[in-house]
Amino acid sequence: MRKTLGIIGGMGPLATQVLYKRIIDRTEASCDQEHLDMIILSHASIPDRTAAIRAGKTEELFAMLLKDAKMLEENGAGVIAVPCNTSHYFWQPLQEQMGVPIIHMVRRTVETIREKKPDIQKIGVLATDGTVFTGIYHQECARLGIECVTPGAREQQLVMDIIYKQVKKGLDGSIEDFSAVDAYLKGQGCQAAVLACTELSCFNETHRLSDFYVDALDVLCDEAITLCGGTLRRAYVL
After folding, report:
1. Is 31 one of the catalytic residues?
2. If phi over 0 gives left and psi between -120 and 50 gives alpha, with beta otherwise, what is residue 43?
3. Of 197, 202, 221, 228, which is the active-site residue?
4. Can you tell me where the transmembrane regions are (predicted)?
């Protein structure tokens, strides 16, 4: 039985649009009716996740996320996707109050890496300061025996610049800045790296990074299609 997909979007709006397009592109369908039914809530005015977490002021943010999730559920969503890695810091308390599953993008990304590359030992994670601060990727990697590497201070600032000063401002993002981060991760012996911020997924749309990079938004896309009863046109390949 097909389920309607609910998306808590707007974090940011471009990333929400990219997820929507990827779901369409990756669904096996020959007519409109074979695509997923979706409810997309683009809550662009929601507080910045990194700022709230770093300041220890998360009550308002959590309340908004819960309200959004409940709204989607009440309007028929059978599965919920959140195209924002940092927001998955709240996954457990949100899921405990929901009657439908919220896809854990962070967990499924790390599990997918382990499933596709069983011998992998060390991965890099490119994310916001908020995601790095919460340790959500570190926890999922540790659970599966994978070492998790985040950029050094200089390289992390470059990551944040790409996210906040470039992509969120409507720019393509500097491949030169990214190359410095890439060199750092490979110098640390990483065998792969996760694009663990959906603005970096947008960056990937433009720059078409190598398969060294695992795009968490692709994992979320495939999981959403599968859980809603759709058919994948092509599964994500690592």
Report:
1. no
2. beta
3. 197
4. none
Give a three-class secondary structure readout of 128-181. Answer: CHHHHHHCHHHHHHHHCCCEEECCCHHHHHHHHHHHHHHHHHCCCCCHHHHHHH
pLDDT of residue 14: 96
Q: Which amino acid, one-letter code, is at 220?
A: L
Contact indicator for 6, 80 with CB cutoff of 8 Å:
yes
- Give yes or no: 84 in active site: yes
Question: Sign (positive/negative) of CA torsion 217, 219, 222, 225?
Answer: negative
Beta strands in 59-133 (DSSP E): 77-81, 122-126
- DSSP category for residue 232: B
CB under 8 Å to 151, separation ≥6 — which residues? 124, 126, 158, 159, 181, 184, 185
Q: Hey, what are 104's tokens?
A: 């854990």
pTM exceeds 0.85 for this model: yes
- The whole-number average pLDDT for the span 3-10 is 98
- Rounded Cα distance between 114 and 142, Å, is 12
Residue 106 CB contacts under 8 Å (≥ 6 apart), including other chains: 85, 88, 91, 136, 137, 140, 196, 216
Q: Which residue has the tokens 């997924």?
A: 201
Closest CA to 218 of 21, 14, 1: 21
The answer to whether the CB of 176 falls within 8 A of the CB of 209 is no
User: For residue range 103-134, what is the model confidence (pLDDT) as tens digits?
Assistant: 999 999 999 999 999 999 999 999 999 999 99
Name the residue among 34, 14, 22, 32 with its Cα closest to residue 228: 34
Cβ-contact 160, 129 below 8 angstroms: yes
